Q: What sequence folds into this?
């Protein structure tokens, strides 16, 4: 017991000294919150978003930017990382990176070299998200001072984390997931696309936040890849359908026009889809069952959904809309992109490994001819008995 007490006392005395050393070391580091990589005549332009701790910690009104951008050009990312030290006064510390943003032009040419650099580097962790700068550059995305979360790299990470649970079209991949999807034969990656809305002249300045409508960043579409190259975009509804099919939707929203005068808003609670592979004349056939719980969130109109006939029709319309959206998204992937983003190839591999060995080397072509059907397995749940209109026509 005496030995334990002595050990505890030593820890108590030494810890403040260790803490002081750690604080001193942190003061000498430049915390990189996000990395942006764009195409350039020199090869790459890398942008490092470095936290400004003085502005973040200030309790008074902020008069300086919460971050500083440092950019450097070159044809080798490792060389750029070292050359940037000539421009900064602190050692660059990459362990807190929240997002890697890649310019759309560069993503279309391929990102294998970027992934190889990030995967091999001992400076980076792997828990950040990859984002494509849609219609703009990574440099502009990271240079935007955003409201509430003024450090845009942190905002992008938080928006994806929140969106995964509440708004399904917003989703992306981390490093290991992205590398695995590129290396796998039966699936191709999909990454979130970010754009700048409401652009202003001072959107890269703290003064921009003084406006009631400052510039901001938002996710609207998902970028589709074939191997490591960006080949196109899914719009918002297609992105929702994609996430429904691959089982990434937790909660989302939808709506149904029951008739010309009745609009019904629905909350969605998705469950894991069931993917079944069968054979027809020696060819694989996929059936995707989409289990979901639909909650009536609001009704605009005078239809009484306590009537089972009306409720059954609403149920049927909601299922029809979900299935139709999935079919359109599949058709776009097969006809326009010619890339399996759903992992159907992996499902075939698990169910029929010998058949997959015959298909895998030519899967892009085989995928365009793959027969896929969708089935909705949904139920409608209400809040209590509020399926009648709250305010009727008469008084």
A:
């Amino acid at each position: 017991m005496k030995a334990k007490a002595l050990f505890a006392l030593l820890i108590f005395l030494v810890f403040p000294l260790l803490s002081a050393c750690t604080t001193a070391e942190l003061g000498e580091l430049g915390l990189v919150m996000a990395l942006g990589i764009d195409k350039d005549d020199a090869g790459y332009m890398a942008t490092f978003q470095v936290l400004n701790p003085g502005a973040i910690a200030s309790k008074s009104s902020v008069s300086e930017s919460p971050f500083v951008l440092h950019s450097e050009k070159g044809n080798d990312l490792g060389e750029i990382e070292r050359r940037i030290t000539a421009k900064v006064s602190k050692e660059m510390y990459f362990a807190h990176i929240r997002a890697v943003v890649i310019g759309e032009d560069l993503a279309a040419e391929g990102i294998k070299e970027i992934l190889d650099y990030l995967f091999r580097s001992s400076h980076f962790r792997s828990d950040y998200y990859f984002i494509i700068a849609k219609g703009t550059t990574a440099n502009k995305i990271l240079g935007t001072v955003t409201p509430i979360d003024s450090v845009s790299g942190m905002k992008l990470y938080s928006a994806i984390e929140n969106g995964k649970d509440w708004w399904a079209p917003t989703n992306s991949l981390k490093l290991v997931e992205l590398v695995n999807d590129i290396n796998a034969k039966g699936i191709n990656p999909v990454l979130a696309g970010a754009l700048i809305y409401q652009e202003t002249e001072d959107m890269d300045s703290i003064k921009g936040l003084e406006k009631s409508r400052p510039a901001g960043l938002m996710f609207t579409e998902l970028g589709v890849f074939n191997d490591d190259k960006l080949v196109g975009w899914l719009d918002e509804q297609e992105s929702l359908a994609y996430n429904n099919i691959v089982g990434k939707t937790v909660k989302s929203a939808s709506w149904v026009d029951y008739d010309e005068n009745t609009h019904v808003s629905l909350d969605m609670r998705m469950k894991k889809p069931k993917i079944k592979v069968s054979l027809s004349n020696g060819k694989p056939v996929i059936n995707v069952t989409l289990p979901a719980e639909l909650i009536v969130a609001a009704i605009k109109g005078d239809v009484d959904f306590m009537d089972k006939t009306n409720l059954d029709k609403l149920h049927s319309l909601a299922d029809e809309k979900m299935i139709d959206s999935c079919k359109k998204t599949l058709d776009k992937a097969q006809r326009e992109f010619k890339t399996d983003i759903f992992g159907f190839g992996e499902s075939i591999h698990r169910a029929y490994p010998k058949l997959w060995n015959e298909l895998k080397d030519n899967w892009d072509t085989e995928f365009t001819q793959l027969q896929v059907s969708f089935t909705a397995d949904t139920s409608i749940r209400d809040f209590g008995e509020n399926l009648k209109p709250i305010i009727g026509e008469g008084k």
Notes: Residues 29-234 form one domain.
